[in-house]
Specification:
It contains twelve helices and four strands; from the N terminus they run ααααααααββαββααα. The chain is mainly alpha-helical.
Length: about 280
């Protein structure tokens, strides 16, 4: 009994507790303010039609098209300030004197503003997209293969120049070879794609279809029938495209060669682009 009375006397008195503690014991303490949680609302990520169109094409294709448009505009003689088309050609003496931009513009110039330029640019958009999607977003590899084709076209163009083919200039001199290589580069892509997809049926004006493997020859034949003659742009593109396809896909020694793999600096510069697949 003495121990019990000692414990009771040593316990703090209820009357001595703070009023808030008493209220808490009775279940009526101050209410806790609930935490306000910010709900992150997703913004509308819908793209406008221009963005949808632009990003509907793989990286290399859409920027190649953009450079084609820029090259055409800066050389348009209707503008108050323009660059003559001759300043965009591949001409080695001018390149060695510092005109290194010609190494790019020769592959981005499809002609002056007009119907032909527009048709070639649209043709490039469609077939470059078809080709680039087969790389499954590995845009560095597609870019590297374009660079290889560009280098091969420049070598072939030098040979063509030795045959006496060239462009006469106003001062009487002659630029050897084909001054602009955008079309041969495009037709090299058409040839490679046709070889990679030989059984695909290509619709011709909606009237009939031909196997893709014969489609490049159809283009050349159609050009001849329309009065264009045996266009060397097509032939140069077909030759380079065939050599590339043979070495890259068929020849047992070179098809697994590291030559066709992009260098590390290019792979770091152009990482894989998600959203484009040929499968």
């Amino acid at each position: 009994a003495d121990g019990l009375s000692q414990r009771i006397s040593s316990a703090p008195s209820i009357a001595m507790r703070p009023s808030q503690e008493l209220l808490r014991l009775r279940g009526a303490g101050p209410k806790k303010t609930p935490l306000k949680v910010k709900v992150a609302t997703l913004k509308d990520t819908k793209k406008n039609p221009v963005e949808e169109w632009w990003f509907g094409y793989p990286c290399v294709t859409r920027w190649w098209f953009a450079l084609c448009c820029i090259t055409t505009l800066i050389s348009w003689d209707k503008l108050p300030v323009n660059l003559p088309a001759q300043a965009l050609t591949i001409y080695w003496p001018a390149i060695l004197r510092g005109g290194v931009w010609r190494l790019l513009t020769t592959f981005t110039y499809f002609g002056s503003v007009g119907h032909n330029m527009l048709m070639e640019a649209v043709f490039m958009l469609n077939y470059s997209k078809s080709m680039e999607t087969t790389y499954n977003g590995v845009r560095a590899k597609y870019m590297w293969h374009l660079i290889i084709n560009c280098a091969a076209l420049m070598v072939l163009n030098s040979i063509v120049g030795l045959l006496g083919i060239g462009m006469d200039q106003e001062d009487g001199t002659k630029i050897p070879g084909i001054p602009f290589l955008a079309q041969p580069l495009l037709y090299s892509i058409v040839w490679i794609w046709a070889r990679q997809n030989p059984e695909t049926r290509m619709s011709v004006f909606g009237f009939f279809s031909v196997p893709a493997v014969y489609f490049p020859w159809f283009l050349l034949g159609y050009h001849c029938l329309m009065g264009g003659g045996l266009n060397i742009f097509y032939l140069m593109g077909f030759v380079v495209g065939h050599i590339f396809h043979f070495l890259h896909a068929l020849h047992p020694t070179t098809k697994d060669s590291g030559l066709f793999e992009p260098p590390k600096w290019l792979a770091d510069l152009m990482p894989v682009e998600k959203g484009f697949s040929g499968t």
